[in-house]
């Protein structure tokens, strides 16, 4: 059973409330997800292909990420998920955006990781990812909606290409 902290729409933790993965999240309550887009120092971006057994199986993700666990802060979650899904360890993550999804009762904190790792050293996470590839910024920005997992991810990518500042959008 995976436990999550509960948050209000302003990204404030709600004390004395715990959410359970798979259970209905109450109205005006959110759980927190962290996403990390990986850019190599040469300018290429890392894409991970979702395992066929997962929702959106076979599609490409421009981020590594997942839900924050109970007691975990967003930055720690982002570092953990990045390592679990790619094998990349870093202490240098830059927050780039925050997204509120009313429909899914989810808050997203989006980070950028700039790395000089060996591009062939990416480690796939069993049951999560099945392949990886590096693409240029132009290739990433021009990917079709059918290729990338979510429209939210496309907005994140577009935001990185358009403006390096922190953004909040719904």
Question: Mind sketching the topology for me?
Answer:
Layout: E1 3-7, E2 13-20, E3 31-40, E4 45-50, E5 60-61, E6 63-67, H1 74-86, E7 93-101, E8 106-115, E9 129-135, H2 137-141, H3 151-162, E10 167-169
Parallel strand pairs: 3-8, 7-10
Antiparallel strand pairs: 1-2, 3-6, 4-5, 4-9, 7-8
How many strands?
10
Q: Which spans have pLDDT < 50 for at least 5 consecutive residues?
A: 163-170
Percent of residues in β-strands: 35-45%
How many structural domains can be distinguished in the coordinates?
A: 1
Mean pLDDT: 86
Helicity level, as a percent range?
10-25%
- Assigned CATH architecture: Alpha-Beta Complex
Distance between the termini: 29 Å
Secondary-structure-based class equals alpha+beta
What is the global morphology? globular
CATH superfamily: Nucleoside Triphosphate Pyrophosphohydrolase
Give the H and E element order.
Answer: EEEEEEHEEEHHE
Q: Tell me the name of the CATH class.
A: Alpha Beta
Radius of gyration based on Cα positions: 16 Å
Biggest beta-sheet profile: 5 strands, mixed
CATH fold-level name: Nucleoside Triphosphate Pyrophosphohydrolase
């Amino acid at each position: 059973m995976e436990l999550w902290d509960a948050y209000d729409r302003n990204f404030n933790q709600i004390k004395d409330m715990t959410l359970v993965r798979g259970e209905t999240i109450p109205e005006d309550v959110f759980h927190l997800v962290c996403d990390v887009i990986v850019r190599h120092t040469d300018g290429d971006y890392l894409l991970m292909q979702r395992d066929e057994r997962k929702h959106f199986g076979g599609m490409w993700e421009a981020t590594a990420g997942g839900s924050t666990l109970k007691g975990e802060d967003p930055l720690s979650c982002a570092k953990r998920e990045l390592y679990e899904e790619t094998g990349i360890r870093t202490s240098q993550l830059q927050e780039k955006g925050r997204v509120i999804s009313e429909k899914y009762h989810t808050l997203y904190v989006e980070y950028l990781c700039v790395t000089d790792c060996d591009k062939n050293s990416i480690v796939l996470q069993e049951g999560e990812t099945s392949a990886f590839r590096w693409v240029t910024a132009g290739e990433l920005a021009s990917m079709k909606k059918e290729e990338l997992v979510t429209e939210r991810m496309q907005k994140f990518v577009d935001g990185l290409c358009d403006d390096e500042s922190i953004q909040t959008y719904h």
